[in-house]
Amino acid sequence: MSAEDIKKLKQEVGIAAAQRVQSGMVVGLGTGSTTAFAIEELGRRISAGELTDIVGIPTSFQASVLGKKYGIPIRSLDDVDRVDVAIDGADEVDPHKTLIKGGGAAHTREKVVDSLASLFIVVVDESKLVDKLGSTFAVPIEVLPMAVAPVTRAVEKLGGKPELRMGVKKDGPVITDQGNMVLDVTFDAIADAAELEKTLNNIPGVVENGLFVGVTDLILVGEFKDGKPQIREIS
């Protein structure tokens, strides 16, 4: 697939997710290129009068900026008592609807918001579907800066190969919206994602990891069939 084809799929699936939002809803605004199209479509629906009384809960600085740009009222979790629907992307999706997220280093806030949502919709193009989790993407772990060295050693004892994520066009490591660092950990195999999620989070100094187990309600997959973009639902 060309870059333009992938962009088209992301746009189609983002729009499809935004179409499921109804007036009066509190909406978790995910992070990433596919979710950006969903946020743009939400803004279009608001300006067209199709949606009213929408509140957006951003999962990152990027999502907050985009939400404001497209006219979505932005609030924090302090201001609401529920999240009706969250729309977010993923870096990998396995047949059990388990995800690896965190390519944009926003997985901690994403997991908080997405887990609270009554309906969590994952939007991906077909390239993100894998048979086995961890086959194409490392597991991101958000770590307190003071704990990078001991967490690295602890992860190595678990059989992982950790690498500190470095900035692009920036000297030094990536810093999350919470002021922490990210270790990208490659595992030869992830036999039990739920157990690994708990084990990693129990390491002192780990804030959160990018394994999302038992959180996903609906996956919208953009794929090409007979040369035309289509949306497939996995529920």
Describe what this molecule looks like in 3D.
- The protein is α/β, with parallel strands linked by helices and 235 residues long.
- 29% of the residues lie in helices and 27% in strands.
- The strands form three sheets. A six-stranded mixed beta sheet has the order 2-1-3-6-12-13.
- Helix 1 crosses helix 2 and helix 2 runs parallel beside helix 3.
- The radius of gyration is 18 Å and the shape is globular.
- The two termini are 26 Å apart.
- 47% of the residues are buried.
- The model has no long low-confidence stretch (mean pLDDT 95).
Based on the model shown, name its key terms:
235 residues; 4-stranded antiparallel sheet; 29% helix; alpha/beta; globular; 6-stranded mixed sheet
Write the layout of secondary structure elements.
Blueprint: H1 3-18, E1 26-29, H2 33-47, E2 55-58, H3 61-69, E3 83-88, E4 92-93, E5 99-100, H4 107-116, E6 117-125, E7 139-143, H5 148-157, E8 161-164, E9 181-186, H6 193-201, E10 206-209, E11 211-212, E12 218-225, E13 228-234
Parallel strand pairs: 1-2, 1-3, 3-6, 6-12
Antiparallel strand pairs: 4-5, 5-11, 7-9, 7-10, 8-9, 12-13
